[in-house]
């Protein structure tokens, strides 16, 4: 009998057949980036679990070092700093002995092969929690923020960062960062730009973790409107034109369509950031026994690869590597 329908099940019959025809490669350890929150405190053994992100910790310098040394096959980290003091110029962000600068020096001294990426933003260091300079009338100044962002990036590079990731969403930041790095001799430091960053409610747990909630207003005047997809391509192309070496799309899962479109619009490496809220939801459901968390995690990350991500920033990095869930 000749079937008149397509028999898709033929190639799904056995694990080897499925492996043979699978279109998306399994996750690789070398493509996973682990975010870390490092706290400026006299107690370098500081270690505090983030309530809305079970399994994630704010770490003092010693604990950060330990974390990085004990996670097997860890290839890359993304550092966020939590300073002891904040002001309205974010001076902690570009201080020579700021917490991120110290963390970078420590990690690179211990593990020169580790790719240390730094988040370059001012919000954690600003008393008002915005990513740029706040004017008296409540608006965020774009152009006067750029030198501070650039100075922050240069200070990270000077400390030994392998790559800097500006996430402030000011216009012209990539050009400013690239120009400042080059002027200071860091022509070989790549810029991983948060090119496509939406004003998302999925950042909620991060703001608790990094103490970076804006005290007034929101970030909608600089982060992107969730309804816009074509605009993502403008942002992506702009950042490449300004000199970005690789781009981030963020959040990841709810914006997989954006990831897919950006993948087709530009040719630089692309990174998906599975953000704090995405992690918190999966984790909460997992802890309640409502989902098979491990399976859901792997499926959510595979989806990002399928959509076009070359690398993934995820709070599941430690678990993926410890439990040997990646190749
Ligand atoms: C700082 C920054 C944020 C995130 C990364 N860098 C927060 C924000 O923009 O409010 C979010 C990360 C996450 O939610 O996991 N600009
Ligand atoms: Zn910020």
CATH fold group: TIM Barrel
Shape: globular
Strand content: 15-25%
CATH architecture annotation: Alpha-Beta Barrel
The total count of strands amounts to 12
Mean pLDDT, to the nearest integer, reads: 97
**Given the structure, what is the number of helices?**
11
Structural class: alpha/beta
Radius of gyration over alpha carbons?
A: 20 Å
SSE order: HEEEHEHEEEHEHEHHEHEHHEH
Kindly report the name of the CATH homologous superfamily: Aldolase class I
Question: Under the CATH scheme, which class?
Answer: Alpha Beta
User: What is the helical fraction, as a range of percent?
Assistant: 25-40%
Largest sheet descriptor: 10 strands, mixed
Total domains: 1
Low-pLDDT runs of 5+ residues are: none
Q: What distance lies between the first and last C-alpha atoms, to the nearest angstrom?
A: 43 Å
Q: Which molecules are bound besides the chains? A: ligand PBG, zinc ion
